[in-house]
Structures are given as C-alpha cells and as structure tokens.
Amino acid sequence: MAPRPVATLVPGQPTEDGNRVPLTRLVPGRGQRGSDAFRAMDPFLLMDHFGPMVLPPGTDAGFPPHPHRGFQTLTYLIQGAFRHRDSTGGSGLLRPGGAQLMNAGSGIVHEEMPVPEHLETGGPIEGVQLWINLPRAHKASPPGYTDLQPENMPWSEIPGGRIRVLAGTWAGIQGPAITPARIAYAHLELEAGARFEAPVPPGWTAAVVPLKGSVTVAGTEVPADTVALLAEGDTVALFAAGPASLMLLAGEPLGEPIVNYGPFVMNTPEEIQQAIEDYQTGRMGTL
C-alpha cells in the first residue's frame, strides 16, 4: 500500500474571532481565498485552532450570538469549558475531550461562551472548530444540535500513543458524530519515536494538522499549526520524532458549487442574498 505524500503545506494564520479570542485559522489558510480554498479541502470549509490561552478573571472572551446556514460545525474542546445556546432551544456544556455537532442547515443563531466560573476566576481554554459542508440536498435541513460527551468518544490506546475518533473511522475505531458528508476526523497523540498508519478511501481529501510538536509525512516535516494536504495514495502514514498532538482529517469531496459569505455557505449567490435577508429579518430565530 502506498502512503500519501504531502501535496501542499499551508501555514496557519494567527488572528482573532468572536470576542477577542486568539486563534490560528488553518483552513482555508494563508494565501488561499474564497471558494478556491474551500474546493481544495472539500468537504471541509474552515478549521480554527483557538487558544491555547488563559482567560483572565472577569473576561467575556468567547463567541457571542451569530448566524450560520448551509453547513455543520464540529467544535472539539481540548481544555477548559464552553456553554452553547442556540435559536432552536439547544443548549449544552462543552467539557475537555467533548464536542458539539451543530447542524446550521436552513439557518441557526448560536453562541459559545465561557462557563460562569471561568467568567469569575479565569482559566485555560483550547479547542478546534471544524466547518463541514452540507450537500445541496441537506442545506435546507432543519437546524439542530448534538452533544458529544467525552464518555462517548474516549481515548483508545494504540502502539506509541492514543487516538480519539470524533467522526467516521480511524485505526478501526468509529466516532459518534454523524454527518451527511462522509468524513473521518480524529485527535491523535503520539510519543517520541512513534509511527502511525491508517487507510484512507481513494479519492478522498486527506490532511494532517499538528497542534503541538511536528510530524514527518513521507519525508516532509509538518510543523505545528500547519495544514499538510495530502496527495493520492492508500494510507496516511506519519512519524513523530518528538511528542506530537495532531488532528487527522479525511472526507469524500462533494464536488458541488461553493459560494460563501461570512457565516453562510451556499451553492449560488442568490442563496447567499436570501440567507442575509432571512437573518436580518429574524427568520433564523433569535437567542
């Protein structure tokens, strides 16, 4: 079986989002813009590594109410705690090792903010948010929210490390997140000197994204907060010279038109205009 080589290395871009939350934007990434960048990672639209940071006492850093339409968000928390509320009445507490899958579908307004004790005392926060495109047939689906607690996707020990699978299958382990787009998504931690290899279906997009440390993929070193988009092959194979923490992504491209405007991702400009109008007139709901 042939390991997939690195096709493109894209360094993440440091920025802020929400209410003063520092993050590294990994997808689309520096030098990539608009729908061309989205097509390169189809069906993944955006990936942010927020933190790691320590919230000072009294902070309100977080993601206040904002809308989405046409895709899903999968938010994974590594440390800290966030609370979620949305316009469908969905709510939940995001704990370390847990995730939340939100279907924006036809339109939703939500917020992700620190829990009250963080507001009072401060504390560390770190996580990854992934945007997953919805196929055209699902973009008008009812919005909704699913809690994915740490107990439902525990760490699994593997040679030289451990893996937590959020969606799809990696290393024979199935994750709990269900998405219309066919994806496989996991958090992998490797010890110094460890190797990892797992198959990926032909034709699927595949990427390796270190969060801490670096890994080597087919002779190419991939540093932290960098997206390694992989070329065709049978497996994802990597080596960690030192301890490393990374995200594994694979997905079947949708191959559909992509038109994006801020928090809306649709198939045509007319659908974007409709999304803007629906949000401005309150048809996506309110908190």
Quick summary:
The chain is 9% helix and 52% strand.
Task: Walk me through the structure.
This protein has 3 helices and 26 strands. It is globular and about 55 Å long. Strands 1-22-19-24-17-14-13 form a 7-stranded antiparallel beta sheet, with no helix packed on it. It is 9% helix and 52% strand. Strand 13 and strand 14 form a beta hairpin. It has one domain: Sandwich (Jelly Rolls). This is Pirin family protein. Its cofactor is Fe cation. One of its GO terms (molecular function) is metal ion binding.
Radius of gyration: 18 Å
Morphology call: globular
What CATH calls the topology is Jelly Rolls
Number of H/I helices: 3
Report, as a whole number of angstroms, the end-to-end distance: 51 Å
The CATH H-level homologous superfamily: Jelly Rolls
Secondary-structure element order, N to C? EEEHEEEEEEEHEEEEEEEEEEEEEEEEH
Query: What is the total tally of β strands?
Result: 26
Strand proportion, as a percent range, falls in over 45%
Cofactor: Fe cation
GO molecular function, one term: metal ion binding
Keywords: Iron, Metal-binding
InterPro entries: Pirin (IPR012093), Pirin_C_dom (IPR008778), Pirin_N_dom (IPR003829), RmlC-like_jellyroll (IPR014710), RmlC_Cupin_sf (IPR011051)
